[in-house]
Design a protein that fits this description.
Strand order of the largest sheet: 1-2-3-4-5-6-9
Largest sheet: 7 strands, parallel
Oligomer: single chain
Low-confidence stretches: none
Helix content: 40-55%
Distance between the termini: 29 Å
Length: 240
């Protein structure tokens, strides 16, 4: 909802609540579209929405981390999630390992605030570096008691990966999800009902799904609100 949020955060959140959404994921990396933490809290209260997670730049864990954890706790959040590692990690497994250590350290701080630090995958994470996939290295190097993982199924598909196989292998690490579907050639995302990935089968395979935040994400929509309505209707109608 990036375009709509830039135009009017309050009106956009109210529209999402009226559709039936209960949760939203904040974009701290976009400075909450000009809203202060106080304003965000007021908007959430006014609409009845909850924000269990926010996306933030990974460098956040290196600067004023405790203050950001305190803000997240004040907003009633559970997760602070980095959408990716810095660009330097795209070329070096050693850098991936360095950031894994940093996540472990920051995750320990987050736990003191009752929060979880998490990492989210991008399409390029499916590209091996020196024969190893970055996310597999990251998960091997991080402590599951301190760091969790947000699986973006669409991003994994666009990178050439298999979200279902990943879930089966790392089911104990995946505690949050971006629900995103893709067109047949995996070059872009689309509405959940129109994509090629079996979202229903995937969700049915997630253990304790009711305890794990799931966020609809469609980055290439021509009409964000219309897509949000369509995606909600599709998910509401799923049965297994």
């Amino acid at each position: 909802m990036r375009k709509a949020m830039r135009e009017s955060p309050e009106r956009t959140l109210a529209a999402l609540a009226s559709i039936g959404y209960t949760d939203v994921e904040l974009l701290w990396s976009f400075q909450n579209f000009g809203q202060s933490i106080k304003a965000v809290k007021a908007s959430l209260k006014a609409t009845g929405l909850k924000a269990p997670s926010a996306h933030m730049a990974p460098e956040t864990i290196l600067t004023e981390w405790e203050r950001r954890c305190a803000e997240a706790k004040d907003l009633g959040m559970t997760y602070l999630t980095a959408p990716s590692l810095p660009a330097e990690a795209n070329k070096s497994i050693d850098v991936v390992k360095l950031w894994a250590t940093r996540f472990n350290n920051a995750g320990e701080v987050a736990r003191r605030y009752g929060l979880w630090l998490a990492l989210h995958n991008e399409p390029n994470h499916e590209k091996p570096i020196m024969g190893q996939k970055p996310m597999e290295v990251f998960l091997a190097e991080t402590d599951p008691k301190l760091v969790r993982f947000q699986l973006d199924v669409g991003n994994m598909l666009m990178g050439g990966g298999d979200p279902m196989a990943f879930l089966q292998r790392y089911r104990e690490r995946c505690w949050s999800f971006h629900l995103k579907n893709v067109v047949a050639d995996r070059t872009k995302d689309t509405e959940l009902a129109k994509g090629t990935f079996d979202v229903r089968a995937f969700l049915a395979a997630v253990p304790q799904l009711d305890k794990k935040p799931c966020f609809v994400e469609q980055e290439g929509s021509g009409d964000e609100l219309a897509s949000a309505r369509e995606n909600f209707a599709y998910l509401r109608g799923l049965r297994w």
